[in-house]
Design a protein that fits this description.
This protein is an alpha/beta fold and about 500 residues long. The chain has three domains: about 210 residues, FAD/NAD(P)-binding domain, CATH 3.50.50.60; about 110 residues, no CATH class; about 120 residues, Guanine Nucleotide Dissociation Inhibitor, domain 2 (2-Layer Sandwich), CATH 3.30.519. Helix content is about 35%, strand content about 15%. It has 16 helices and 18 strands. The strands form five sheets. The chain has a seven-stranded mixed sheet. A five-stranded parallel sheet has the order 9-2-1-12-18, with helices on one face. Strands 3-4 form a two-stranded antiparallel ribbon. It is globular and about 65 Å long.
Amino acid sequence: MQSLAGDSIVVVGGGIGGLSTACYLADAGADVRVIEKNEQLGGRASRLETDGFEFDMGPSWYLMPDVFERFFADFDREPSEYYGLTHLDPHYRIFFKDEDRVDVTPDLERTKDVFEEYEQGAGETLERYLEKSRENYEIGMKHFVYEDRERLRDYLDLDVARQARGLSLLGSMQGHVENYFDHPKLQQIMQYTLVFLGGSPKNTPALYNLMSHVDFNLGVWYPEGGMKSVVDGIADLGRELGVEYDTNRPATAIKGREGAFLVETPEGPLKPDLVVSNTDYAHAEQELLAPDQRGYDADYWESRTYAPSAFLLYLGVEGDVDELAHHTLVLPTDWDHHFDQIFEDPQWPDDPAYYVCVPSETDDAVAPEDHSNLFVLVPIAPGLEDTPEIRDRYRDDVLDDLAENTGTDLRDRIVLEERFCIEDFADRYNSNQGTALGLAHTLRQTALFRPPHRSKEVDGLYFVGGDTTPGIGVPMCLISGEVTAEKVLEDYGR
């Protein structure tokens, strides 16, 4: 095994990618310190705790359990040593805005029956679709996710071409799903996971049909205590490996290069041999690095397609909300208009598709007795005007919509309310334009078309997180940490 013994490394940013990288680098013998701008680790996977309520502020879906198992196995551990898991049933509930409701459960035969109710033969079609999704997942993960191919010539290898031959590499998700299902509601069920990738059915590559294997076959899980338990587990593993953490310590500048870095912070400078940046890529380049050390100019970042931001309501309410499942989606029967108002004609959506998370349906510990804990998330375009007056109006509109389309009227039962939106994402996470996720997974921003893990201008500086490969989401950021650590070991391991 290659060693980094004797090397000191500072990881700037304690998100999932940074925490993952820190574990791998420390395991290779490096002296690793993670500095985090905010009061807690986790990045966007933060936790809000107030008045007996505990909210996951960001990621709330535990998907791709195999990725977490592989991560902990790399250190001879198991996820169960750090947190417990509950398999959700239903995986999620969908309320369509025409008084229709669908539960997607772990029982595939039941789900096939549901599909059959909408379209004759759709049950068997679902089985064929999921078989293709499983194939894409297994090939894609092995050959194109865990193996980072950062140059075009990496794709010209005959073996790579053979592996890629069966993948749905071209076309959009919209076109791919239409090849299988005619009913618009079935198309929506197969595409809702695109929200987690920061795209729309029209701009996300068909390759991401592999997410249906994640959803239907691998299942949807809940880590006891919420996603913060996963963050705590990864951080605890890091401590066991020797990683040190400083919260409330933002980096204000990154100067120098390998062997002679200077990471400036309000508490004084750090002088590591190497640096890994887990801040948003654009923030690191435009705010922390000098102009001659930037791999991309301002025009590049301005030209990118960003994943949506979000309007979030964190709500503590009296009583139960039994109409809602742990994961609930509320969808217009035609959601194209909402996606257009995110990507084509940015504005606050007037007929939104949105998500409601109710962890208290599964976990009694996240809310006081006889109360419910939930948050409502509406995807919106990044960079919109975000004022208190707009938030007030939109808050009322969303609660009205929720009452009308799910039968859950919260308006007179709210005992705790917090809001989070574009300006908060920009302030708390230094996210460009207030995006909630980073760079969207469009065809021109997938794989080698995402910014690289190695700095283009500074030897010894690396990047990790959702803006790099393999991309957005907690599992992908976990893998990004492994990929970044591999780059460091390739360059400096002994």
